[in-house]
Amino acid sequence: MTLLYPSFVWLLIPLALFLWQGTSNIVQRVHLIVLMLIVISLSRPVQEQALQEANIQAKDIIIALDVSYSMKATDIHPTRYDFAKETISALLKENPSDNIMLLAFTSNPLLLSPPTTDHTLINIALQSLNPEFILTKGTSLEKLFKKLASMKVGHKNLILMTDGGEEDDLAKLTNLVEGSNVALTVLALGSIQGTTLTKEDGTLLKDKEDHLVITRINPLLKSLASSVSGAYITPSSTAEATAEELRTALERFEEKAEQVQKMQRHYLELYQIPLALALLLFFMVHTRAVKYLFLLFALAGLPAQASMLDDYHLALAYKSYQKSDFNSTRRHLKQIENASLQSQMALGNTYYKQRAFKKAIKTYSSIRSTSADIKQALYYNIANAYSLLESYDKAKIYYTKTLQLGADADAEHNLGLVALLSDKKSASLGIAHPKSQDSSSSKSENQEKDKKETRSEDDPSSGSGGGGESQTNEKQTKEKQEKKQLVSDEREEQHPLSSKVYELINKGYIREKQPW
After folding, report:
1. 449-458 pLDDT, tens per residue?
2. Stretch(es) of the chain classified as CATH 3.40.50.410
3. Fold held by 310-455
4. Taking the alpha carbons of 407, 409, 411, 416 in that order, is the dihedral positive or negative?
5. Is residue 343 pLDDT above 70, yes or no?
6. What is the CATH T-level fold of the domain 60-256, as seen in this structure?
7. Burial of residue 348 (number of CB atoms within 10 Å: 0-12, 13-18, 19+)
């Protein structure tokens, strides 16, 4: 059970104090209890039900965010990049039902968030992106449009947030946009006069000829928008006003919103129970017809019986799980009529404990939630199950998804292990098992919050330091040294292992000579 409006619960504090220290008059005490029950009803107690698919009115939008080096320019306050992020956040607030995909691009495009109406996930992906870890610094609209064409996402609204870089082939870009099947809206981030770029050490960026680098808005953007009958927008004074202009531009493209399928949470309302008790107490004090009310309240309470039985079976399932009687746990969970988040998570954990990993993965994958913490726990459990099925490539994908939603030492540790296990050359390092999901399961099971199981793992063999033995071939050593010279920079901070997104966006990095 959960409360949709928990803020009303604060009203119970003064009522409880009056009841504790107030008059000894029975009628007045009953009135206080009635008020407390009404407050509980106002807080909307509900029982969560399984997610159901529903059709909603929404627009399909792709947001492509330029994260190249020139987006650090300060001709738009505070920077072009920060202003773009603020505009995206404001746009998400104004369009809560729209189906939105988020892309980041420099010389290479990268999908940060697939199409979703869960804007919380989009914000998480947006805020977790750190341009400091991006090695490619140029801007390639050509590769972006080719990426969109290859995705075959159908007709979409594309919001392109960029300063345009140095591209100048209008005909080619026009053909690519038309081939991508998108309605283009350009948010031109930059000024005509341009501005200088400041490096990390505070000095101004210069080219090879020791001339100051000036980054300006690319006039090609306006011509491109015009050639494909798109919209061209310049930043307003605030991000909110800019988001409003973008929304207005989108409305011109589509008069009617499309039908988008969305998983929606349904609730079983329980406010009738405290409200019924409040009415019963009130009539018991002020009328003599109490005996006729009992039948009425009994009939009104019938719909709540199923919910009470589900709670009963869920409680028995938790007790059986704690006793490691997983057959009984599964039997009790199967008797629950209306599947809830807690029951589905418990069923997935039960399958995992019984080593039915494929069933566990199927159960975890069927759970839908808007909570980033719950999604992170689900991805972690799925990754563990794939690891024990020796599907290391799939395990790496889900460990990476776990880390994209937040720091997790266990997921990072396990990601390193499965990366080694998936490499044929890691056979000499011994066998290592990913850490158990017990602690992750405890995150999602309220009944086991205080129970922390110790995790065990097989220590790698003493050959773990023998990586040099597998590199005795001089050719391999030379190739690795050359690759290191291309990618690494002693002054650059190493990005964490969990940031697989940066490896994708930095693909093909060869130290661009003029990325602005």
Report:
1. 343 333 333 3
2. 60-256
3. 1.25.40
4. positive
5. yes
6. Rossmann fold (3.40.50)
7. buried
